[in-house]
Amino acid sequence: MPIYTVGLESSCDETGVGVIENGSKILSNKIYSQSQIHEKYGGVVPEIASRNHLKKFGPLLGEALSEANLNLQDIDLIGATYGPGLVGPLLVGLSLGKSLAYSLELPFYGVNHLEAHVFAHFASGAVSPPFLALLVSGGHTSLVLVQRWGKYRRLGETRDDAVGEAFDKVGHMTGIGYPAGPKIDEISKKGNATSFDFPRPMIDSGLDFSFAGLKSAVSREVEKDGNYNLPDLLASFQEAAVDTLTEKAIRAAREEEVDHISVMGGVSANSRLREKLGAAATEYGLTTSFPPLDLCTDNGAMIGITAAYKHLNQEKPSPLELGPDPSLNLG
Length: 331
Prior knowledge:
Structural class: alpha/beta
CATH superfamily of the largest domain: ATPase, nucleotide binding domain
Largest sheet: 5 strands, mixed
CATH class of the largest domain: Alpha Beta
Number of strands: 10
Helix content: 40-55%
Number of helices: 10
Strand content: 15-25%
């Protein structure tokens, strides 16, 4: 008999519901993005995000089940993100997940959002541990050694801004709007990445990251000259960020003697990062993998896959008293 899992994601401004069969087959993956709502604020407003999760989870759950040709009585377990993220949005999805599990008398698994990004690669079967995980998103920039599925060792992380946050702040200061990542990626293709000599903070030291200095350098350039060439500026900024991520990831993989780098999180969709890290890895005899674009951003499928893995490996379900943990880490 197949085992069906519902995964719920609401750590920030995406409402996600995924339905998974037998731990890895994605039957549906419905995502509602609030980016247009928050664009006028230049970033996510937690209370507005929470209210929209409340409005969207019900219809989205119905759509996901319908697409999977299932109803709630067919579901075997529930997973929901409990951290890290914004406490209000986390509470909405977590409360729904626990309520469904309680009312349907099903096992419930609280899922670490960062671990779920790692498990976005699990369904494809394209990579097996040990490997290096480069987590790049609006809230996180980390290098993690995946020793086996479910066992991690954190090697490095950002000391200030995450790389996705730096992209959004540069987007805000240049007036291209939120979310800025895809827009910077596209506009940069028309620019010259050597036009501005932006810093690569901490590129030669350790495995931690820092993007605040890079963001400040862009800000100074914007304030100094209002007639700057936008594609050149954004391409130069993006190149500095990608150079830093690439250099650190290659260094970490070589130090840990692993031959594969998996990239995950919203910034993993960036075309220049895919190109540059892929080329650098090949030069050093390493391989890389990136999730499909619909699994790069926050989504319910990766939550369901992670919860199903825990269940199928006989891990104890989470207590229904589990609360949100906004500062949860990995490794």
